[in-house]
Amino acid sequence: MKCFDRRDLGLLLLRLGTGGVLAAHGSQKLLGWFGGGIEGTGQAMEAMGYAPGRASATAAGLAEAGGGMLLALGLATPAAGAAAVGAMAGTAAVHAPNGFFAQAGGYEYAASLGLTAAGLAVSGPGRLSLDHALGHAVNRNWMVPAALAATAAATTVVVGARNRRLRRAAEGRQEPLFD
């Protein structure tokens, strides 16, 4: 057996950090930890334009918690990374009107988590992972574009439906002409 190198250790740290944060966010939604919960998150999702709210909260929670846990373990890395990318793309869509920086409510944080998850899906988990221990049975090269393409298609449909809902809700409202 070869010694683990810097790349393996770096990928482990990225997986543990990114996966841990995502798993915590998803658990908050699903399990009600830290002031979260599926009912309140569902209501918030509905207010953000994702409907039905409870189903949207469940899907987001599962993508974050499941994708995050799998990323941290380095198991099914292409699917785990893609799930996290989809969840963060949905989050970024909500924050995009506020600009880039998180300080102003922008999408900076969601983009960082999503891009890190995508990078891990593409690069693979390294040798300090369950994927490596299991002979990469659920981490084949073809799985990376398949998982990312499926996630891109699903995210496009979900965010597109949200945008149409928001546009319909805004129809007929007029901004004041003068302050």
Question: Please, could you describe this protein's structure?
Answer:
The chain is an all-alpha fold and 179 residues long. It is 69% helix and 0% strand. It has seven helices and no strands. The longest helix is centred in the C-terminal third of the chain and has 28 residues, at 143-170. The model has no long low-confidence stretch (mean pLDDT 94).
Task: Give the structure's gist in a few sentences.
Helices cover about 70% and strands about 0% of the residues. It is built from 7 helices and no strands.
| Alpha plus pi helix count | 7
Average pLDDT value? 94
Taking the sheet with the most strands, its summary is:
none
What is the helix/strand order?
Answer: HHHHHHH
- Structural class computed from helices and strand pairing: mainly alpha
Stretches with pLDDT under 50, minimum 5 residues: none
Helix fraction? 55-70%
* Content of β-strand: under 5%
Q: What is the radius of gyration computed over CA atoms, rounded to a whole number of angstroms?
A: 18 Å
| Large-scale geometry | elongated
Count the strands? 0
